[in-house]
Amino acid sequence: MARDFSWIRPEPWGIHVIPADCWIDPSRPVDRALVTHGHADHARGGHGETVATPETLAIMKLRYATCEGAVPVAYHETLSLQGGVSATYIPAGHVLGSAQILLEHAGERIVVTGDFKRRADPTCPPFEVTPCDVLITEATFGLPVFRHPPVEHEIAKLLSALAANPDRCVLVGAYALGKAQRVIAELRRAGHVEPIYLHGAMERMCRLYEELGVDLGDLRLVSDAAKGALAGRVVLAPPSALNDRWSRRLPDPVTAMASGWMRVRQRARQRMVELPLVISDHADWDELTQTVIDVNPAETWITHGREEAMLRWCQLHQRRARALALVGYEDEDD
């Protein structure tokens, strides 16, 4: 007998879980929001109640000053919501605190992945495959052209550029939540123990990561550095700072950017990036399609990205699928 899963309804501003009268990652304030992670296109302030992992709630408190109505839920903890719905938060591997949300009602299981990746990341727990009837997946890099290289390869490129230019610094543009901390942790894993310098806008999130148990090593502020101290150093800054007045104080920087979008040469040229680093916190094409195979849902619902290509892939593989076309989601500087 065909099922329509009518108890969960995609709306333009979020996913409505009707019996529980709650929303997943809504783009406008609601009475009860189930939030997958702390990026601004998923986590918004102003909700009556915000249900998320403790790490995501801490990130939201720092970024959006949201603390009223916070309801923490640990990984693998199951909450009983009204209307006979239960919700279980499962690691998504995207950034610290990120979660897939498994919803169960009337014998049916629906997993909302939020954003996710399948690669190992020293700053957060790995993605867990969760069987379900409906998989709601992102498709940020949902085109076959996006096949991310091993992160070790990209970190080696960064360190090689550093060694080859001892009188310059390597200035890495990186998203302030998740990407910056991952780049730092991967540099440490590669044996880089030297101080890493931060733009002031990066400091609070890095310190929060440390408070939450992620060791990032010796971090210092560019503003505190003595003249000449930045030569031969890695400097991290928001992508918007790569070519602005702030960067002019740096010693002839090798301009780099860590993003899955660096696979697209035109994007690197537009940002005047000398050293593109293809480091992504999202699943690439192979990981997206493999996740559908691994989870093996009865239906796949696609959102947040290149929906058409993923939809076509599902059709070619005899898998039921639909595109959700939610609003309020943006291309992060990944």
UniProtKB/TrEMBL annotation:
Every copy of the Metallo-beta-lactamase domain together lies at: 19-175
Q: Which GO terms describe its molecular function?
A: exonuclease activity; RNA endonuclease activity
Instruction: List UniProt keywords, sorted A-Z.
Output: Exonuclease, Hydrolase, Nuclease
> Mind telling me what this protein is named?
RNA procession exonuclease-like protein
